[in-house]
Design a protein that fits this description.
Layout lengths: L23 H9 L30 E10 L7 E10 L2 E6 L8 E4 L3 E5 L1 E6 L15 H12 L5 H17 L2 E8 L5 H14 L2 E6 L21 H8 L7 E7 L4 H14 L3 E5 L9 H7 L7 E5 L5 H9 L3 E4 L1 H6 L7 H6 L5 E2 L11 H21 L11 H7 L2 H6 L17 E5 L11 H8 L5 E6 L2 E5 L2 E2 L4 H19 L7
Parallel strand pairs: 1-4, 1-5, 6-7, 7-8, 8-9, 9-10, 10-11, 11-12, 12-13
Antiparallel strand pairs: 1-2, 2-3, 5-14, 14-15, 15-16, 16-17
Helix pairs in contact: 3-4, 3-15, 11-12, 12-14
Length: about 500
């Protein structure tokens, strides 16, 4: 990282030398293969399987030494280092301290980097991967009509594969190493299979949250070929027989009333899957759903509550008292009409929220922006109270707080805190190197401030997931973007055509 290299320059180490990756030939060949069989009675859907290209970097070397970086461990015991090394061994963090001496290790020079744990996103609808920026001005109602009822209802398993793959690779590229895929696109079992396959092929650490299908009527129960939510039993058996793997299982519970939520909650607990649920979105979020579920004893520590903008005080206390976690998507909450991001309400109850992107149709693929949004909203709320004469206003959040929200708090919400979220010795090596020598942050004065206030995805130089280098010198390893683009653009065109929509970019 101490030198300036072109797009195709490599230092010669294994991490910088892409393996034989996805080529146009392998992609076109994979299109001809049938990996998922659709019901023959399914009208209008192509019987061809989703393309299954393998997009992966090299296997993890036994030892990797990240040398000489400014290290923010997010571990209260280890602390922070102006300059330190990180030893990775067999995919785990073995040591973090200055001047580690080790033989036979692949060395990544980090003298011009701030080294952090990878960002952890606790709620992203990855089936929207090729619909980026479609609704920059859209409300949630407009999103439901266009994206869910028109485009979502017409998506094929092949489209879902392309969208999930693109979204996962974009997440890695921006420094997100763990993402919860709120997969609200289980129109058929094949759709679910395709979403999971794309997550696995991308190399990201993911939580697959099995969600409801989309239907033209807006009622997911009208999706004729869906097996939601019962199909979670098959998914657990087929793909998630162990939690000791890169992709793990959640239930994405719908909010269409107590009975609907209750069925998903109970099936999730039957198969041992944690739960994620949207609550408190706009006026509809004032239904008291959590009060009703709480009265039935269904609110527990296995559940993450997304948005929470318009839930009542009793519901907030129920989340706290039952050990639940909170996911805030500040950008979409304000842009789409969900309500004011409830950062201070969570903090007042001792809840440390996690962060999430939500929908790429409206929000940017930028976790730095998520951190800044939450920091700015909370500080503005406190300033407003002080300017109004409130002498009991809360403390301001600090930059380090929102970096914790984006890392270790996300890991806790995704039930992965024992594995990731901090650069703690013994955890998995999900590590991001951020360039500190770019014009937006150099010369650096404060490492945490640079990460939270100054950096953008352009600073993401290198990404390791499970000890495997997935991005190096600013470029994804082993990924042919020409082929990925071909896959995504074909799915986009197919989806718009089937939906009867004209694609217009201006």
């Amino acid at each position: 990282m101490n030198d300036s290299r072109g797009a195709h320059a490599h230092c010669g180490c294994d991490s910088c030398t892409p393996p034989p990756g996805l080529t146009r030939r392998t992609f076109l060949s994979s299109l001809a293969a049938t990996a998922v069989t659709l019901p023959s009675a399914l009208p209008g859907l192509a019987a061809a399987a989703p393309a299954r290209p393998t997009i992966a970097g090299p296997g993890a070397p036994r030892r990797t030494l990240i040398r000489g970086g400014t290290v923010l461990t997010m571990d209260s015991v280890l602390g922070e280092f102006a300059r330190a090394d990180i030893l990775v061994e067999d995919g785990f963090i073995k040591d973090v301290r200055p001047d580690i001496s080790v033989e036979s290790a692949e060395v990544i020079e980090a003298g011009n980097a701030v080294v952090i744990p990878g960002f952890v996103d606790t709620h992203r609808h990855m089936w929207l991967g090729y619909l980026k920026n479609l609704l920059p001005d859209g409300s949630f109602g407009e999103y439901q009509q266009l994206v869910q009822r028109q485009l979502g209802a017409q998506m094929t398993p092949e489209d879902v594969y392309a969208a999930n793959l693109l979204s996962a690779l974009a997440a890695i590229d921006s420094g997100v190493t763990t993402v919860l895929d709120w997969s609200q696109i289980s129109n058929t079992p094949a759709h679910s299979d395709s979403a999971i396959s794309a997550l696995k092929d991308s190399g990201i650490r993911a939580v697959y949250a099995f969600g409801n299908p989309q239907a033209e009527t807006g009622r997911f129960q009208d999706a004729k070929y869906s097996k939601f939510p019962e199909d979670i039993r098959r998914l657990r058996s087929q793909y998630f027989s162990t939690d000791d793997q890169l992709v793990t299982l959640f239930m994405a519970a719908p909010t269409g009333g107590v009975d609907v939520a209750l069925q998903s909650f109970r099936l999730a607990r039957e198969v041992g899957a944690p739960i994620s649920i949207h609550v408190g979105m706009g006026a509809a979020g004032r239904s008291g759903l959590l009060e009703k579920l709480g009265a039935l004893g269904e609110l527990r520590s296995d559940t993450t509550y997304i948005h929470c903008c318009t839930i009542n005080d009793k519901e907030w206390r129920l989340i706290r008292d039952t050990g639940g976690t909170v996911s805030i998507s500040g950008i979409t909450e304000m842009l789409m009409g969900h309500g004011h991001p409830p950062i201070q309400r969570a903090l007042d109850l001792g809840l440390r929220p996690s962060l999430s992107l939500d929908v790429e149709t409206t929000a940017p693929n930028d976790f730095f922006a998520q951190m800044r949004t939450v920091l700015a909203v909370q500080k503005n709320d406190v300033w407003a109270r002080r300017l109004a004469g409130d002498d009991k206003s809360p403390d301001f959040l600090k930059a380090r707080d929102v970096l914790e929200f984006a890392t270790i708090e996300g890991a806790r919400a995704n039930h992965l805190a024992k594995k990731v979220g901090s650069l703690s010795i013994g955890k998995k090596a999900d590590i991001v190197l951020l360039r500190r020598d770019l014009i937006n942050v150099m010369p650096m004065n404060n490492a945490v401030g640079a990460v939270v206030s100054g950096m953008t995805p352009q600073n993401v130089d290198s990404v390791l997931i499970d000890g495997v280098v997935r991005k190096r010198h600013g470029h994804l390893v082993g990924v042919d973007w020409g082929v990925v683009s071909l896959l995504a653009e074909a799915a986009q065109a197919r989806n718009f055509r089937r939906s009867g929509l004209e694609r217009r970019i201006v």
